[in-house]
Amino acid sequence: xxxLGSTGSIGVNTLHVAERFNIRVEALVAGYNISLxxxxxxxxxxxxxxxxxxxxxxxxxHPRVFWGEEGILKVLRVSESAIVVNAxxxxxxxxxxxxxxxxxxxxxxxxxxxxVAAGAFIDPKALRPIDSEHFxxxxxxxxxxxxxxxxTASGGAFRDRAIETIEEATLEEAxxxxxxxxxxxxxxxxxxxxxxLFELLEARWLYGCENVDAxxxxxxxxxxxxxxxxxxxxAQMAKPDMKLPIxxxxxxxxxxxxxxxxxxLSVGSLEFRPIDSARYPIWSIKEDLLARPKLxxxxxxxxxxxxxxxLDKKITFGGIARLIMEAYEHFHGREPESIDExxxxxxxxxxxxxVR
Length: 356
What we know:
globular; single chain; Rossmann fold
């Protein structure tokens, strides 16, 4: 396999799975965590390596080192692996997804932004989802047609916080996830509920079902539910560990234990809550966005721009959702009709957000 984003949490878990099942790692693509990448190179001995910049490439003792976005695309074109794990963060992951598919490869997809921004132009048959929610839906569907699909959310860092105090929340508070440790962007997206909005779009593109929704399940034991025509509802439960969906994405069938089963007596009661737009203002655009899913490119670009402003202390935490919704209203008529238009609109939205 080719692994994009090898030093992030998904990448590290993917390498655990690769080691356990003796899956050859042909290429490692990372960003700036050179010390961890060097350890991975020594252990897995990839044929190709790629890092963020030329200067970082000079620090890697390997005969075939590439850098930057063009380097990622070169790795995809010269590699022989049939499967690419795309665990890159952000819009950066879209072009590699498109290129990998053009090269005839299957993409095990953890990069939400690929489908959020360009789901209309990506063949879902070339994808295997790594997100726990979308893996859960796949696990439940079994090829059947759903009436309704529901994914769950943890609720993020401000799930139980007084609503009136969320507006001025600090970065440190936004990164204090109640259930697990993730990268900074996905943790902020969890706090705003943008990540769940994105996952609804992903589910819609992956499975062709327009009747999708989400709710909060604080213990993160139930990941997905599917309602069928006959009135039955099934739920997928597992401990929140990404190695299970990764193993299925890589091998499609798993006949050995990956995780310990959920002990329902230890879990005790389960609670489900609605996602409230008073606590998560971005949720107010959900229905319109699901009706016009091509506008995902606008939401994604505005979100990435807003998070950058928040990290630079140019806007408050509450300003993230406001900027996204303002951009969504401003660009409401800009639905892309091609993959090239996706990239053009992305640039336009980011420029607009810069001066807000």
